[in-house]
């Protein structure tokens, strides 16, 4: 461990709450300490209340906030005197505990306080830090973890046996701390859970956390159990792997009852861990800390037998639900982590962000498992303890805060010609509705078109079959499958009559507008067949299909041929639950080819103002890229679930088409 504390940054903090924010962020920046909302911190501050009297207030991390990015608004202020009275009660049910915490805040708009607020309140220190440090959890998750912790820390820490977070844990810590704390005590270790440090100042509490975790790391180094090396293993790839991954995703989605993304990780230790001879033993013990279970479930799936995993999960529920204080409803039984010798580590989530969190948690779990194994054997908590947290109402509430998932959550779309115009608008529309989007374009700018976790931009020449296959396999590795295909890439060569049309221009137009789309349809078909809600293809055609104009032979013919190809595909693929529909836009002027100069020139040619030229249709309305994209996205939704082979104009009404 290395301290990230900087005196200049700390001195810029105006008060203790700002110092609390600063040191909390330092902890959050170190992923070996906390991950994705894990851990919590607090500070006790004396404030003047509404009546002019001094009042002690505990500012504790609010539920749903992440230490790495927390702000002052992320801390819930609670009346400390009331919390101490709560700690003296003989018992307190979870719902009432939450009620007491929320109703004794000094700010109504504050976030819901951490369930460990009472524990922070009873510790007699101004600043309290709590993390799930990998090094500490590695030591505690062994058969003799408590003895090893005492060997490492001596009387620097009080050792607390595992207890459910909340009121019971606070009571246990209060009793143990009162009985065992010494003058040298600077922290607490909660077995199979994490570590606390505390101090009179933010710097002291933070420095003690670094010191304590550093002692654990050094112990693991001496035991050759820190940064355990794994052999470098080449990752298999190709069409066979991609199709098998899509099948796994389809099976997982069927088990869950809704679409899910599956992100494949073969980098670093992931593939080598999945190929270990003892993986069936060391990976089936349970999570490193119980709170991870709400993200990863208790155990990963080994291999690809999703049905077997579902049966085991149902048996786990049936075995432990009767011991619960109140009846529980079975959660979806689909795995969230898959370990496979060819896939490596697969992380499963409703969104790319969720899958990323799962991957982060499990890669750290791998480190903990490997370290504990090197110490003599990894041992997680009993299944009943994990079940109690997985089905704990307070933990489940964290996952429900997101509300109803967006329409395309868990689904994957591929858009071609996506760097500008209609393609870019399609990317934005699909991302806004929760889809993960793979965007292809010749322009290098496609890589940075969006910063969202669910976006993958790939520089790709769609006329190159090898590049297309590579892009498709990259999409499968990133998200596990394909649900929607938007065929938008195309070129419009300069106006030229047939008697002067160069063969090269004709062939180039056909390669981009027709041949590339044939290849994409062919290569995507096996994956679209496996889409949990059925595959959907939207072809961006043109007004020139039903109403061609002079000087556009290559463009009109290529788009007409693409339209005919889409109609045949609709006939052939209906039995595969793939629907294919076409949009025929016209006069969409917010694209790269329509500069202000070109628009002004064309408007003048027709004797119109630019605005009138843009609205030169039956409805006298302007058609934008967003209009086309909105309908493309809608065609992929439930409103058009029973429509295939349709051709829809998006042109404001064109008299020649009508």
Overall average residue pLDDT:
94
Strand proportion, as a percent range, falls in: 5-15%
Q: How many β-strand runs?
A: 18
Shape field: elongated
Low-confidence stretches: none
Supply the CATH architecture of the largest domain: 3-Layer(aba) Sandwich
Radius of gyration: 30 Å
Number of helices: 24
In the CATH scheme, the class of the largest domain would be: Alpha Beta
What is the share of helical residues?
40-55%
- Counted up, domains total 4
CATH superfamily of the largest domain: Class II aldolase/adducin N-terminal domain
What does it look like?
With 658 residues, the protein is α/β, with parallel strands linked by helices. It has four domains: 7-222, Class II aldolase/adducin N-terminal domain (L-fuculose-1-phosphate Aldolase, 3-Layer(aba) Sandwich), CATH 3.40.225; 239-400, 3-Layer(aba) Sandwich (L-fuculose-1-phosphate Aldolase), CATH 3.40.225; 412-588 and 623-650, Rossmann fold (3-Layer(aba) Sandwich), CATH 3.40.50; 593-621. Helix content is 42%, strand content 15%. It contains 24 helices and 18 strands. Strands 3-2-1-4-7-6-5 form a seven-stranded mixed beta sheet, with helices on both faces. Strands 14-13-12-15-16-17-18 form a seven-stranded parallel beta sheet, sandwiched between helices. α6 packs across α15, α18 (421-432) crosses α24 and α19 packs parallel to α20. The chain starts with 6 loop residues before the first helix and ends in an 8-residue tail after the last strand. The model has no long low-confidence stretch (mean pLDDT 94).
